[in-house]
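Changelog excerpt

This revision adds worked examples to the README so contributors can see how folded entries look when concatenated. The first example is reproduced verbatim below.
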Amino acid sequence: MEASIFAAVQVSILSIAVIFTVLTILIFTIKLLVKLIPYQAPPAKPARRKLPSSNNDQDDHVAVITATLSMHMGKSPDEFRIVNISQS
């Protein structure tokens, strides 16, 4: 019984030594790679200009929404009227 406990302790110490050796190698490898290949941030994307929406665009949207609703409800577009569209 004593021999099996001694063997278990030996295996535990050996496994801990292997784990820490591998971790140490990984740490130094990562540090070396950071020095050899430094991080470069990607270039910033140019800011988009927001185009002012014209009244014509809103009229087009109202026309599309009206046509879609009339087809979905099975009614004529003259039977209802969209008064206001708000963006949130």
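The second example, added in the same revision:
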Amino acid sequence: MSFPYKSVVAIVAVFAAVSSASADEYLIDTNGGHASVATKFLHQGISWLTAEFNVFEGSFVYDPDNVEASSIAISIDTTSLDSNQATRDGHILGVDYLDAENFPLATFVSKAAEDQGNGMLTLTGDITLHGVTKEIAVEVSMVGEGEIRGTPRLGFEGATTLDLRDFGYTKFGPTNMVHLLVNVEGIQQ
């Protein structure tokens, strides 16, 4: 995949350097299609619309013995929004909504991890969207782990809800709330 923005791998490498010695770094497997960034929002308070961002990259650090040392950094190309309806995509990507031409990049970089037990954790970090950076919390759960062709992999799902008014958006409908769901399968580096 050719990502048009600076790689976030360097950001995560900083986390890896300060994490415990047994923490492992994982590259999110976007080339194999084993990851997704999806969104869901209300259309005029009537029905749910869903979409995915088809271009993104990132990596994470995870240490099962010290979950608080875990971290993630992810970059999303907002112009890659796909709601399975081209006219709607053009409208959402336009200046009235995402304004993706002027703000083609969204990022999330975690700052802290809190172990909730049983493969659950809460990541606190900074999300930058529409040129505005806000601290948010993301509830994360481990989906599974294993090896594929001899390489260790980990899978996680993260979810959060954003009030788009916090990022300067005002036209997403009556609630201006959007749900984000991120599924990642990481390849150990």
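Reviewer comment on example two: The domain at 9-188 is CATH 2.40.128.110 (Lipocalin). The longest strand covers residues 132-148.
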